[in-house]
């Protein structure tokens, strides 16, 4: 793109492999810090397994709390990744280059974290996972494929396997670069992982095809994953506010909004921590900002439709739910924060070029959006369950317990830790993409002006 | 007759592309030249010709396998455990669609990944003639020639601007 | 012309070499009217007259029986979601700054003219739509009255407001067309004489093409495009709710408006593809419509075709799983009951057949493949509109809590068939007339492309290099 600085392959290798070949001290400090919080989260979960789900804040009728909210949130974040990388690859967007890998890695680690949530939430995962996996043959129990709770793991595991393989395949050339820069046992390991990559035209051609082909196959998986997560909620008629036909695309687009914002957060962090100003440039934030305006507005359309149709039927249960979500303390406060931080503050800001090109501003706005999107899931799930139904005789409310708060905090550190450790082993910015970008850069003279240009193959 | 491989290393792409012409003049066929680069170049940049690949067949086969397994699994499960849940028929097709969809795509992905590795002619036990500087931007031309001609090929490579030549008994 | 080279990524572009040639070729076609054009125009004119006869017969039967207006409503929605939707292709692709849109942008936005016809078709439907009072409606008016019996907000909803939205959409479409065509109209002005010249001189407001004018032009197109987008989505959503969902008790289908928007995008792409095919084969624009635009559009057509299934499935599956009586009856009415044949046809033509065609790259990367898939989509949309709107217009008691019984299939009578033929004839006629008023190729966009792209040698091959200003 236009602001690219000419860099040699040696410079690219040096900058992008800095952390892989010799990690700085702060890196290990950060790893230790994150690992401590993750350990605290594991301790909290262990405490809960030991004492039972009574230590959580869930209570009839709101039996789903922070852990399930957090599950939906992390599934949502995982959407950014592959969706962004796939769409940009399919569109041959030149500005995709520095962020595809980071986005894909974010997908994998947030998916793994997300899958932990329902298992922890069940309180006795080893006794309850038979809803998803056939192992309790002694009691003749086999997963019920008519239940959304089996569709969900089937989709998530398909997505996890696909995106992991996607990363591995596109990593091959970069592993070869590390192989050529290391010695001893590391050299041997990387040699084995590089599978004997040499960089022949045929291999490069197949890399190109793999990027496109796998993207095209992963996109339908990505759409199905969050659709099916929404159907965990929306299929049954028992919770009126959830049984809406729009739930699937509404969840998907919401996931894309929070996920793409998370990629912006990650990009800013990579730029600052690894000093990759030459690779992750202001123009990339600019492009992401434009994309986010479109995504956020599409999300708002689905949100509005979902909300309007809730009122449209004039069913007392539905109207009562909207009343609860919007007007009753404390949900009303959360609702206002959610709608402001998810749409009405960020989108007007993103309209300004100066904001989009300000890395710090983009960083904080992207975090704000994800606060909003976390609250969105909370407002859908918890007040949604707090309905008064026949045959429910206890109406408690929901208040998160410290155990839940610690676990949720630990998940954020777990994802960060995963990405950090990945960055120690593999480059977070694809070297081949960066080098190809250098090769394809060109200039065109129009009249008296020289305009940056790019070669296009498609 | 025994074959022998010669690797010429070039500092930049222009010289390497020019070298293929010199090699042609020296009687080397295009199919006997293999270009090694550290980054993808536009197709045909070195006059290379990529032999046909069948990568598009792999996802198709994988999808068919995944589809079949998923249909058998979902239909079999429902028929083997005939419990009515949620008032739905014993053999409910719409939920089968979901699992079959995932199964089909999973099959497609697994086979595509295998296909990419296979069609890239990987894994390759011995890396063969290679130089680590290729991943630093140098271009390598590996020429396969009759064993008694390697000297002529080496001379041609040097004439074309290779700054280093390696060879190996193939 | 550049020699295509070997390999998969051959440069297939066949555009003229210079801006002058673009002007010459487009103007040559624009200013001449062939015999084929006259025959087609007369034929469509006759169809339109037949449609007017059918319309008079329909009006003579009065507005009270909504069922009788089902096919009329469906054909309105058909035009709304195909021809009248086409300008969105041009707007969206211009926003995305695609280069392959340049040959087809005008062909798509020229369909804004058909909006005028559809606005006329819409007027009687305002009399068919029952008052919102006492029934479920997205408009607060109806909701408020149902609860409290008083008047609500906004006044005269939904009739006044959807009429304004539709009129706004039509107006914006025309404004967009005029703005986008302004530099080209100026070119025609400079190359014509007498009456046409003096008319265009007034119409082009003295456009000279100064840098300032180009900047203003660009800004105007951006603003109009953004407005058009918002009007497009909201108008489609609201009209679809008022004439579809709101007329069927128990049809609580929040995805339906989005489904209609999506299926209109799909059909907009389809009608653009079919138009490109005709312009290429019979319009004399063969070199402008080479395989790249077809290939690029067909990829998006494939994506929208898959999304068609996804949106339909989200709605069907939720109802199927819910299994309440209201949901079962709605499924019967719209899909599996009296209109099952139409639903099967819609499913085949809107999703299954185009999907099976378009998943193959060889089909996408051709002229005929995308055109055939697009023609199927246009047929599928027709069946889909019939199954939804004939069915929803045929529900008698729209104030019930849920659909108690599924009404029998309503078959078209003679007047309906005349109306359908007339509307389709009118659609084509309006477009044909449009091609005489405005050049059907966006000359300035093509010329801009020629200044921004080079075909250059690179090592031992040739590559296309695109400048990226700004």
Task: Describe, in plain words, how this protein is organized in 3D.
The complex is a heterotrimer of chains A (458), B (170) and C (470). Chain A is mainly alpha-helical. Chain A has a single domain (9-454), classed as Up-down Bundle (Formate dehydrogenase/DMSO reductase fold). Chain A has 18 helices and 2 strands. In chain A, helix 3 (25-51) runs antiparallel to helix 17, helix 5 (100-121) crosses helix 7 (148-181) and helix 13 packs antiparallel against helix 16. Chain B has 170 residues and is α+β, with helices and mostly antiparallel strands. Chain B contains 4 helices and 4 strands. Chain B has helices spanning 13-25, 57-80, 93-119, 150-159; strands at 3-10, 33-36, 139-146, 164-169. In chain B, helix 2 packs antiparallel against helix 3. Chain B is rod-shaped, with a radius of gyration of 26 Å. The relative contact order of chain B is 0.31. In chain C, helix 2 runs antiparallel to helix 17 (414-437), helix 3 (70-81) packs parallel to helix 17 and helix 8 packs across helix 9. The longest helix of chain C is centred in the middle third of the chain and has 33 residues, at 211-243. With 470 residues, chain C is an all-alpha fold. Chain C has a two-stranded antiparallel sheet with strand order 1-2. Chain C is built from 18 helices and 2 strands. The radius of gyration of chain C is 24 Å and the shape is globular. Chains in contact: A-B, A-C, B-C. The interface between A and B is large, with 60 and 62 residues. Strand 2 (449-456) of chain A pairs antiparallel with strand 2 of chain C.
């Amino acid at each position: 793109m236009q602001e690219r600085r000419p860099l040699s392959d040696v410079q690219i290798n040096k900058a992008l492999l800095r952390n892989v070949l010799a990690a700085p001290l702060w890196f290990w400090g950060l790893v230790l810090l994150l690992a401590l919080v993750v350990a605290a989260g594991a301790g909290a979960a262990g405490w809960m397994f030991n004492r039972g789900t009574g230590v959580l804040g869930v209570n009839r009728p709101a039996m789903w709390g922070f852990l399930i909210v957090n599950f939906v949130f992390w599934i949502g974040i995982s959407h950014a990744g592959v969706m962004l990388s796939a769409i940009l690859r399919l569109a041959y967007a030149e500005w995709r280059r520095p962020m595809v890998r980071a986005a894909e890695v974010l997908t994998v680690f947030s998916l793994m974290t997300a899958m932990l949530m329902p298992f922890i939430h069940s309180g006795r995962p080893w006794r309850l996972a038979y809803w998803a996996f056939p192992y309790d043959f002694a009691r003749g129990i086999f997963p019920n494929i008519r239940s959304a709770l089996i569709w969900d793991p089937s989709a998530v595991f398909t997505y996890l396997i696909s995106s992991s393989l996607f990363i591995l395949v596109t990593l091959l050339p970069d592993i070869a670069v590390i192989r050529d820069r290391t010695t001893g046992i590391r050299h041997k390991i990387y040699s084995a992982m590089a599978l004997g990559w040499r960089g022949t035209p045929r291999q490069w051609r197949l890399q190109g095809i793999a990027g496109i082909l796998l993207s095209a196959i992963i996109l339908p998986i990505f759409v199905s994953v969050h659709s099916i997560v929404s159907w965990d909620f929306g299929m049954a008629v028992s919770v009126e506010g959830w049984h809406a036909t729009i739930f699937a695309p509404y969840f998907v687009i919401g996931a894309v909004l929070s996920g793409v914002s998370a990629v912006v957060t990650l990009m800013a962090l990579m730029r600052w921590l690894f000093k990759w100003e030459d690779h992750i440039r202001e123009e990339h934030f600019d492009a992401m900002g434009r994309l986010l305006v479109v995504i956020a507005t599409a999300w708002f359309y689905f949100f509005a439709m979902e909300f309007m149709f809730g009122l449209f039927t004039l069913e007392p249960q539905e109207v009562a739910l909207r009343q609860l979500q919007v007007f009753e303390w404390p949900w009303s406060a959360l609702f206002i924060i959610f709608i402001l931080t998810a749409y009405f503050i960020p989108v007007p800001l993103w309209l300004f070029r100066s904001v989009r090109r300000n890395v710090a501003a983009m960083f904080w706005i992207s975090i704000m959006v994800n606060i909003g999107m976390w609250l969105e899931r909370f407002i859908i799930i918890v007040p949604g369950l707090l309905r008064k139904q026949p045959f429910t005789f206890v109406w408690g409310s929901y208040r998160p317990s410290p155990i839940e708060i610690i676990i949720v905090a630990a998940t954020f550190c777990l994802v960060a830790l995963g990405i950090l450790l990945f960055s120690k082993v593999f480059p977070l910015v694809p070297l081949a993409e960066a080098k190809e970008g250098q090769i394809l850069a060109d200039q065109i003279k129009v009249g008296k002006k020289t305009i940056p240009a790019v070669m296009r193959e498609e | 007759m025994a074959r022998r491989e010669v690797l010429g290393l070039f500092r930049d792409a222009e010289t390497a592309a020019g070298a293929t012409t010199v090699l042609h003049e020296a009687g080397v066929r295009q199919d006997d030249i293999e270009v090694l680069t550290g980054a993808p170049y536009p197709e045909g940049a070195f006059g290379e010709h990529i032999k046909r690949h069948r990568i598009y067949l792999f996802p198709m086969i994988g999808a068919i396998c995944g589809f079949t397994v998923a249909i058998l699994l979902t239909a079999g499960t429902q028929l083997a455990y005939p419990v009515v849940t949620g008032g739905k028929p014993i053999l409910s097709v719409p939920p089968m669609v979901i699992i079959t969809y995932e199964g089909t795509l999973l099959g497609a992905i697994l086979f595509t990944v295998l296909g990419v590795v296979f069609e890239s002619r990987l894994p390759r036990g011995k890396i063969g003639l290679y130089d680590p500087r290729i991943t630093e931007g140098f271009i390598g031309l590996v020429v396969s020639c009759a064993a008694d001609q390697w000297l002529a090929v080496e001379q041609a490579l040097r004439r074309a601007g290779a700054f280093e030549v390696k060879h190996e008994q193939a | 012309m550049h020699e295509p080279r070997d390999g998969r990524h051959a440069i297939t572009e066949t555009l003229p070499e210079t801006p002058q040639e673009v002007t010459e070729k487009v103007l040559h076609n624009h200013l001449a009217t062939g015999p084929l054009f006259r025959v087609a125009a007369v034929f469509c004119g006759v169809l339109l007259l037949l449609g007017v006869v059918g319309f008079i017969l329909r009006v003579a039967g009065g507005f009270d029986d909504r069922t009788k207006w089902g096919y009329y409503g469906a054909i309105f929605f058909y035009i709304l979601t195909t021809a009248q939707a086409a300008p969105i292709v041009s707007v969206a692709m211009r926003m995305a700054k695609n280069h392959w849109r340049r040959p087809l942008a005008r062909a798509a936005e020229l369909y804004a003219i058909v909006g005028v016809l559809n606005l006329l078709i819409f007027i009687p439907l305002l009399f068919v739509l029952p008052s919102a009072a006492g029934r479920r409606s997205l408009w607060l008016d109806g909701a408020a009255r149902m609860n409290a019996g008083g008047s609500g907000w906004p006044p005269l909803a939904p009739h006044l407001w959807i009429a304004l939205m539709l009129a706004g959409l039509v107006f914006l479409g025309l404004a967009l067309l005029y703005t986008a065509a302004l530099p080209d109209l100026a070119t025609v002005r400079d190359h014509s004489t007498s009456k046409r010249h003096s008319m265009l001189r007034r119409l082009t407001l003295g456009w000279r093409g100064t840098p300032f004018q180009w900047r203003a032009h660009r800004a105007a197109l951006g603003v109009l495009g953004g407005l058009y987008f918002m009007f497009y989505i909201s108008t489609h959503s609201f009209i679809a709710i008022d004439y579809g969902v709101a007329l069927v008790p128990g049809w609580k289908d929040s995805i339906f408006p989005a489904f209609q928007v999506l299926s209109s995008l799909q059909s907009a792409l389809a009608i653009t593809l079919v138009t490109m095919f005709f312009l290429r084969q019979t319009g004399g624009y063969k070199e402008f419509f080479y395989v790249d635009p077809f290939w690029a559009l067909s990829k998006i057509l494939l994506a929208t075709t898959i999304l068609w299934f996804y949106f339909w499935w989200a709605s069907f599956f939720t109802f199927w799983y819910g299994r309440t009586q209201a949901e079962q009856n709605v499924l019967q009415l719209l899909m599996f009951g009296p209109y099952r044949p139409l639903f099967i046809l819609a499913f085949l033509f809107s999703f299954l057949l185009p999907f099976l065609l378009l998943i193959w790259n060889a089909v996408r990367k051709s002229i005929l493949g995308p055109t055939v898939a697009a023609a199927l989509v246009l047929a599928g949309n027709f069946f889909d509109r019939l199954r939804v709107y004939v069915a929803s217009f045929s529900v008698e008691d729209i104030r019930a809590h849920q659909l108690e019984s599924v009404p029998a299939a309503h078959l078209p009578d003679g007047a309906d068939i005349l109306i359908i033929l007339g509307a389709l004839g009118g659609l084509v006629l309006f477009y044909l007339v449009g091609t005489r008023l405005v050049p059907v190729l966006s000359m300035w966009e093509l010329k801009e492309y020629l200044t921004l792209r080079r075909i250059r040698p690179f090592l031992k091959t040739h590559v296309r290099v695109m400048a990226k200003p700004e």
